[in-house]
Amino acid sequence: MQDLIKRILSARVYDVAIESPLDPMPRLTGRLGSPVFLKREDLQPVFSFKLRGAYNKLASLPADALARGVICASAGNHAQGLALAAQRLQVEATIVMPRTTPAIKVEAVKRRGGQVILSGDTFDEAYAQARQIELQQGLTFVHPFDDLDVIAGQGTIGLEILRQHPDPIDAVFIPIGGGGLAAGVATIIKFLRPDIKVIGVEPHDAAGMAASLQADERVTLSQVGLFADGVAVRQVGEQTFRLCREFLDEVVTVDTDAICAAVKDIFDDTRAIAEPSGALALAGLKAFGPASSTSGSRIAINSGANLNFDRLRHIAERAEIGERREALLAVTIPEHPGSYRAFIQALGPRPVTEFNYRLSGSGPAHVFLGLGLSEGEREKREIVDILRRQGYGVEDMTDNEMAKLHVRYMVGGRVVGIENELLLRFAFPERPGALLKFLDGLTPDWNISLFHYRNHGDDHGRVLAGIQVPADDRPRFHNRLDELGYPYWDETDNPAYRLFLDGAG
Asked: Of these residues, 297, 303, 360, 449, which one is catalytic?
């Protein structure tokens, strides 16, 4: 700890970084009943905190190491931070990025003088290539998080928070990917102000630090969610795990909808647009539970704003659900004249945000319904109870990921007579040839019976596919999918499939 404290106190970051402001969030403060502040690392020259650690690492290297040049693997923020740091110090920088990296991030690195090598479809593949080039060319590798000088550079954020907010602080919330930011900030805050709670925040589907702390050793996640791509790390660092285990009070996890709602909160209070990982800490602050009005302020670190514009439509769709201001329901109504009118009367004057229905035969009809809420979960439960008392079948789809990503856009696609259909949700890399690779992995015996894809401006596309696979051939089918390497989820038993897409439903 003493060594790291010295490194933080002597870190060289302000040659390139700014002391980012600590902005009040008056609207969110009014809703939560206690003061909320946002540490604005999205205002750094590369729109991310990563510049601090990258520059501090380079500034600490001996001249001969700098002369050989530096290399890193990154899909975005660390790459831009290292490129700018190397440009300022007149050092040659090689950045290995996955081929799936959006063009806007690749161009940002090139503009700052970085030599970009595109390799692999994932960060792990790019990382392996970078380490190989390091050995072949004698370059100096700059780790994105598991390095004490990188951690110390990020720790300067903690010093700024304590200097900028001398009033009582209840808790500081920090996003966690590999753990470099959390390790640095937690160490300095606990050294200077041990009374302040330091809370790490991770997505539900990329909670490597939470899993490691629970197991009391580093664990490797089999797969990670890609929505908050800035923190999509399968294994946290060795140094960062040791420090977070000692200095973090707790790690909380949040889902995609909560992150989208936090992006909207940041926009409402500051008119800034955060990337999903940048809004992660604020989502954790909101989920942590109410603070008393006398316990002090709560502070969340907005870690970055490197967001593809195309992703905003997906965030906007999910923000109201994240705030529990919208409910998504599958409602079964009788298929006869007058039933539609009776159903609308049962809903009363409540605002309808979505209504999807298509005649599918003589049986009951299934409606995909969106309703605006003003009183959150309590109001949703009341609506469900009212509908059920009037004889309607109701399934809550508000937290059904497949329904929100795909089915709401596919109502009316039911086909009768499809045999042996499996329904699978995939994350395809956004690059030419990804679909062909998928199709080449299937045999002609397995027919694709359904396919739905939406581009969310991300480095991975969300795909829903129906595939006809006889029961006795399914072990071989799953082996092929494992060999393909695309993350996937079996949705065959999902009620949204049964109600809206399955011809036998």
From this structure: 303
Q: What would be the CATH architecture of the domain defined by 2-48+148-309?
A: 3-Layer(aba) Sandwich (3.40)
Q: Is 449 a catalytic residue?
A: no
Helix, strand, coil share (%) of the chain residues, nearest 5 = 45, 20, 35
CATH number of 324-399: 3.30.70.260
Q: Is 303 a known active-site residue?
A: yes
Domain range list for the chain: 2-48+148-309, 51-141, 324-399, 413-500
105 and 75 Cβ atoms separated by less than 8 Å: yes
Write down the pTM of the prediction. 0.83
* Active-site pick, 39, 50, 57, 105: 50
pLDDT tens per residue, range 458-492? 667 788 888 889 999 999 999 988 888 888 999 99
> How do residues 286-330 score in pLDDT, each as one tens digit?
999 876 666 899 999 999 998 888 788 889 888 988 988 899 999
Cα separation, 175 vs 281, whole angstroms: 5
User: CATH assignment of 51-141?
Assistant: 3.40.50.1100
Contacts of 317 (CB under 8 A, 6+ apart): 260, 404
Q: Is 67 in a helix, a strand, or coil?
A: helix
